[in-house]
Specification:
It comes from Spinactinospora alkalitolerans. This is MFS family permease. The chain crosses the membrane at residues 16-35, 41-65, 77-95, 101-121, 142-168, 180-199, 230-252, 264-283, 295-314, 320-343, 364-383, 389-408. It holds the Pfam family MFS_1. It is a multi-pass membrane protein. This protein has 420 residues and is an all-alpha fold. The chain has a single domain, classed as Up-down Bundle (Growth Hormone, Chain: A), CATH 1.20.1250. The chain has 20 helices and no strands. Helix 1 (2-28) packs antiparallel against helix 10, helix 7 (140-165) runs antiparallel to helix 14 (262-290) and helix 13 (227-257) packs across helix 19.
């Protein structure tokens, strides 16, 4: 079980290192080298638009990889998704800039970002199910959270690596320094594959293979037999990702543009990711004892209450203000995120679980984190620099999430093997 949990965590960490590394670069680099003919506000909007392209591709990746994960097994699909992500990330690190090849550069950037989105769309569901479907019933929430811990851990690693290279002189950082973290993906993927190839297929999937109906298509079954659970899972998950999009992407750009030290901001973001890992562990443990819904609701209510205080801290334009905002935001995100893997998995039976859980999670990421940085930039521009519109939208997202969680059935005590 330790090897299984280590595989789930490590594989997720590596995939999200690659995927979220792009988010940091979009906040502080890409607007200066791929969108050079625009004003600062519109360049940031365009840069965050390319970020969104990866998130748009995630549900498609979840559907495609989920189909094969429900048909041929969780393990094999995870190997393919990791290789796909590693190749795309290394190619971004080698990509010429707009000054070198003109408009083709941002076009290629978007295409590679879409490939990243497809790959990570297949990663989370498999990594989470490898752990959850091996785990004892009373520890499913904790086991599933190891895939969730990989995301903030990968974000912390990516942010720290970029932070080291921001110490270079500005022209060197923009010339070659930003590329090195992307190229390091090759090393991480090699390590991840060695670990992942040693993990066995899950018992629930092995049992399913003996009775599976090859004519049934998992995606069709999810959409026709479990549309309500899919919809509620997406709405609940959007709250998690709206925090990520605002405090770890948009706020980084806003704080740096407001005069905060770039290296200090990135170090604060990395520290907040560590805080999130700790709250993920704690809330996952609590969800195994008290249920997924009560724990997630506590995080949703807390995040809604702290929406404007977090934004006011970001608005201060100081490293300390940003630090307080991102630590509070990621801490609350971890409370919701900890039980979320088990929450989504327990909405679907084994024969469609990879597809259903992946679609719910990845669609939530698209609506929450994918569009939020660009929407936040647009709302701030529309409000003349004010943050009131952004805060109001944030609270509405959490109100919808609370309603969705309340409408789902508690899954902590459900027998996954007998679900139909």
């Amino acid at each position: 079980m330790r090897r299984i949990l280590a595989s789930s965590f490590t594989g997720s960490l590596i995939e999200y290192y690659d995927f979220l590394l792009y988010a940091t670069a979009a906040a502080i680099v890409f607007n200066q080298i791929f969108f050079t003919d625009m004003g600062p506000g519109f360049a940031a909007f365009a840069s965050f638009g390319t970020l969104a392209a990866g998130y748009v591709a995630r549900p498609l990746g979840g559907a495609v990889f989920g189909h094969f994960g429900d048909r041929v097994g969780r393990k094999n699909v995870l190997v393919v998704s990791m290789l796909t992500m590693g190749v795309a990330t290394c190619m971004i690190g080698l990509l010429p800039t707009t000054a070198d090849i003109g408009v083709i550069a941002p076009v290629l950037l978007v295409l590679l970002r879409v490939v990243q989105g497809l790959a990570v769309g297949g990663e989370w569901g498999g990594a989470m199910l490898i752990a959850l479907e091996h785990a004892p019933e009373k520890k499913r929430g904790f086991a599933a959270s190891f895939a969730n811990m990989g995301a903030p851990a990968g974000a912390a690693l990516a942010t720290l690596v970029v932070s080291v290279f921001t110490l270079l002189p500005g022209d060197q950082f923009l010339s070659w320094g930003w590329r090195v973290p992307f190229l390091l993906s090759a090393v991480l993927v090699t390590v991840g594959l060695v670990i992942r190839l040693k993990v066995a297929e899950t018992p629930l999937f092995q049992e399913l293979q003996a009775t599976a109906d090859a004519k049934k298509i998992p995606l069709v079954e999810v959409l026709t037999k479990n549309p309500k659970n899919l919809f509620l899972g997406i709405i609940a998950g959007t709250s998690v990702y709206s925090i990520a999009g605002i405090v770890t992407v948009w706020a980084v750009s806003y704080a740096v543009d407001s005069g905060a030290d770039k290296t200090g901001v990135l170090n604060a973001k990395a520290a907040a990711a560590v805080v999130m890992v700790l709250t993920v562990i704690l809330s996952a443990r609590l969800s195994d004892r008290f249920g997924r819904r009560p724990v997630m609701l506590a995080g949703v209510v807390g995040a809604a209450a702290c929406a404007f205080p977090i934004l006011w801290l970001v608005e201060s334009g100081t490293v300390w203000g940003f630090t307080a905002a991102v630590v509070l935001g990621q801490g609350l995100q971890g409370v919701i995120f900890g039980p979320f893997g088990a929450f989504t998995a327990e909405l679907f039976p084994t024969r469609m679980r990879y597809t259903g859980a992946s679609l719910a999670y990845q669609s939530a990421s698209t609506f929450g984190a994918g569009f939020t940085p660009a929407i936040a930039s647009g709302l701030v521009l529309a409000a003349g620099g004010g943050l009131t519109l952004l805060g109001g939208l944030w609270i509405l997202a959490f109100a919808a999430a609370a309603a969705a969680i309340l409408l789902t059935r508690e899954g902590r005590t459900r027998d996954l093997a007998s679900m139909r």
